[in-house]
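We append the chain.
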Amino acid sequence: MTAFYRRLKQRISIVAACALALVLASEPLLAAVVEGVGHASIHNGDIDSARAQARQAAIRDMALQYDARISNSDTVENGVLTSSRLRVTSNVSARNVQVVDEFRSGQLLRLTLRAEMTSQQNSCGNGAASTLKKRVAITGFPLLYPDHARVGRLDDAGEMLPQQLQARLREADSVQILAATTLRMYGDLLNAPTAQQDDNRLTNVRQLARELGAQFVVSGVIRDLDVADPAAWNTSVLGKLKRSVKAVDQSRRFIADMVIYDGFSGAPVYQQRFSARAQWNAGPGSASGFSSAGFEQTDYGKAVAQVMDDMAQSVTDALNCQPFMTRISRVDGELATIESGATSGLRPSATLQVYRSARHFESLDATPELTETGVNITLNNVHPEFASGKLSAHSGQTNIQQDDIAVVW
């Protein structure tokens, strides 16, 4: 009996250890505050470009400090080393980026940043789809309350915010950007983006995505740009005196909702509210517009810029786990043409799975259903904006047709 209990105790200990290991493995790594330094050269007095380069270098420095992976690739021919490549990658994201110090010496700029670094735990970005650039349309972010833009004349925020989001995503070079910043997705801004139309679709996303050739649509609403205390900005002598001695609340709020929609179904795949609050310390007439130099130099403008960085990173992270999907535009026997090409990262010999897109007669406006056909397309001709290849089965046998979907997981 003693030996039995001893073996039972050993088994319980093993099970407990395994359970503990699983729990620890499932826990995300804790965030850590890290400082990084970036350098950049100033060319032709362009301090803004140098600052942007130094910022990217500092973020890379923080990422490598937090979690870096190094891989080496050597090529040997006939016993001779012909090439050697060293690649350093880091799977982390930076939040709440703050400028600690900025120092200029001649034509050299040094920027020190502090940020909260976290490890991205999902492994879905390791699939073939993560190597392809998905087409993303960025629409306007209308202001829910236009009166909030009066101080500083930020009326252009609805168009400039998505343009700045585009610029950050282009710099990251992880998706294809389709500009649509003048388009408004929502008729009811107060309830957007949750208001449904009569056919139960959230918005006219599918129509817009079809017209632009986009797989995803990014849209949103700016809900708050107002100053904390409107009375603090009156033009009276007393008001100016209170501001000069900081006797009033001069902070300003920023709140924006961002949604990413799947262009084929119209369904939202990501939704988040972003916010910030900082001092609106712009001098009289120094800030005029959401992207003006005076706006960017304020504490509020710097805080909004950090939020924009977070928004761009959120788009990249959300789409990294989505499959790559494109429409079939033409079918002729065993040959098929798709609406994506080399600019999306497709290359000859790439294989895509074909899914049939179908709608029911009683609900033609409803979300189309995708059904796996068991047929693949192997590309042999790839052009910048389209590609063609051979189907693994004749279209007459499988009924593959225009508007079916080719997918890479």
User: Anything to note?
Assistant: Residues 2-26 form the longest helix (25 residues). Residues 1-29, 70-76, 80-89, 194-202 have pLDDT under 50 and may be disordered. The helical segments are 2-26, 47-66, 157-172, 205-212, 237-244, 293-297, 299-320, 395-398. Residues 282 and 298 are 6 Å apart (CA to CA).
